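Give me the 3D structure for Schlafen AlbA-2 domain-containing protein.
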Amino acid sequence: MTPTELQELLDRLRQLGNDNSTCEVKKARGGLPSSIWETISAFANAGGGHVVLGVDERNNFEVTGVAEPGVMEANLGAVCAELEPAVRADIRTVELAGHQVVVCEIPPLARDQRPCHKRTLGPWAGSRIRVSDGDRRLTDYEVAVLLANRTEQRYDAAPVPHATPNDLDSDLLAAFLNRIRQTRGEIFRRVSDEQALIMLNVLTRHQDIVVPTLAGLLVFGTYPQTFEPQLGLTFVAYPTTQPGALGPRGERFTENRSVDGSIPTMVAECIRILKRNMRRRNVVSGLYRTEEWEYPEEVLREALVNALVHRDYAEFARGMQVQVEMYPDRLVIRNPGGLYGPVEVTSLGTTPVTSSRNRSLLKILEDTPFGDGHMVCENRGSGITRIRIALAEAGMEQPRFADDISTFTVEFPNRTLLDEEAIKWLGSLGRGPLSRSQMAALVVMRGGRELSNSSFRTVTGVADSRIASRELRELVERGLVTQHGSRGSTTYRLVTTATGESPDLFTPLAGQAPSSRAADLMLSANESKVMAALASGSRSRGELEQATGLRSHQVLRALRSLRERSLVEMSGQERSRNARYATTRRV
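Predicted structure for Schlafen AlbA-2 domain-containing protein (587 residues):
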């Protein structure tokens, strides 16, 4: 880290008023804090971070320096070596404002090596995770999930001792075996039904008798919840954008359901319930407008199947259900167990890397008909990719993913990018026909965001980087966007003079001239009010509502958009009204 980068980091922290999820600041005048190992463990178990020693957080992040930087570096290195696995941190001394500041950059640990813990305490007592500006101990379940991720998991192939083959639907089994014998070759035509089902991990031998596996029961069971009561799905529709907030008639929710049955049954029933709680809207498709559900059915099916198939089926996780939460502004689907294997949140649906926690279950569902002629899943790692493509085709925003070790969450914003106003704006550009992905990218850049090849694919659902490069190059050639940087650091920005924005829709930040860059100019009226309120310092959501006169959901939506564009940072819990927000730079 250079002195300039350190100064910029401290400036952002001053805006927030405290540390954040990726940086811990200590004055360290009395030596290395005894709890510093907790922060290093926490950063290593998440996305990495920085420890800065020689800065006084309580005095507006004043640079005070450390007395013996060489000794401090050595002590930090010793702490990193005492962790298991040892953390390979980059430790250096940076001179700033005439003082020596020690900066320790902690890289994230590979997923199959976590949890990083203090060797003398062991993983259960010595593992930490970063939450906002603090470090907390990992729960027993989180530690168990991380340790289990180091090995192949076979919970889905485990026997269900009290079940019998009679607890499985014979018609579904017959259809399954018929497809297997048609598509899997001669071997399955030469063995009995029972032997074939054992080979396919639908049945297994347990204490000299044949019983269903957990995977077989979940796919073909008449009612799997007889044996595993909590392996179901819950659906809750909320009347407001926040859980617990009452609706206009004092209601806590508009629908609250438990959904049981086999996996295909639960998916079909949940889609039916979702449709009952959804509206239909007009979606632009090329030159035409069609009426579709708020969320495309293909997206719902893929997301629900992913949640039920990739959830954690370890015994200590079977008391938890898949949760579906519907709000006026978003749909949230949450399942027990975070990502498994080498997969990272940032690469979901944009790279071919895939990893399966429940391999037997996936293999069975690959040949299980859903009822509409399609199989329940393809087992090709293409589910997230299909979700991205379907949302792009519907002109909707792409999903947001969160991996919290113990849970995996996907959130679908209830917002279409290509609405009537956006289509009118795109038509005003007068630069010839555009592809659906180019239209979506321009609308996103219109909001002030710069796109790289990777973020273009994330936004539009385009999977091939070569196609993304070609479409971005066409936008540059048409004079709609400008290219900045080269090779791996190339970004694309909307040409300011091509926007044609009207002042009542998009206004500059307070105190900025009309010549400011596009990222600052492209703010909606509500976003401008929020940014103006934050110009004097950090505020909570309630304080922003009072300062701007906006309603709760308007402030929340503006903050979400500003955070996505890295214009605002948050400290505190995501859903807490005590969380504080600040701009990421002076305005």
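The two ends are 25 Å apart (CA to CA). Let me know if you want a second pass.
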